[in-house]
Amino acid sequence: MAIALVGDCGVIAVERCDxxxxxxxxxxxxxxxxxxQVRACFNLELPLGPRRAANNNVAFCGLGPRTWLAVRxxxxxxxxxxxxxxxGEFAAVSDQSDxxxxxxxxxxxxxxxxxxxxxxxxxxxxxxVNDVAATVIAHIGATIWRVEDGLDGAPTFxxxxxxSLANSVWHWLSAxxxxxxxxxxxxxxx
Length: 190
Hints:
This protein has 190 residues and is an alpha+beta fold. The protein has helices at 31-42, 78-87, 110-114, 166-177, and strands at 2-4, 11-15, 19-26, 52-55, 58-64, 67-73, 91-95, 100-106, 132-137, 140-147, 156-162, 182-184, 186-188.
C-alpha cells in the first residue's frame, strides 16, 4: 500500500479498513507441523518470537509462545475461514477482523509522537523492520509492528487496538502529534 502524503505533516495516519485479521494458536505438540503448513501454503517462515513474517499479502506477527496475529491485505471475515481450512488441523484460528482497528503511522516525526505514549525504544537500531511488540499506548493494550519504510525513508508502523478503544487511541495520537502536524492520507494501491 502506498501512502499519498497530504500537506507538510510530521505524522501521517491511515486507518487500515482493508484487512482480514485472525489469531492463530498452535495446538499442543503441533508447532512443527503448523510451521511446515504455513511454509507450504504461504511460502514464509512462521516467526517464533516477536517478529513479523510477510509474503505477498499475508503476514504473521508473533505475539507470544505459539501465538500469532495473522493479517491479510484486502481481507475480510473470509480470511479466518480460509486460514482455518489450511492450518486448522495444527492451530486454533479465530476471526478478529471486526475486533481490531489498525492504524498505519508514518512520517518524519512518527517516532517522536509515539514516544509520548509507547513505552518502547522505537529507534531503528532497537525496533527494526518486522519487529513486533505487545505493549500499551497511553495505558491501552496494543500490538505494534514495523513495516518497510515509506518511499520518503520515513519509518512506518502499524498499531492494532481493540476497536472499542480506537477512539481513545486516536484522541491520544491527535494530542501527541499536534506539535508535529498530523494528517490523514489516502491509501492507494502499490
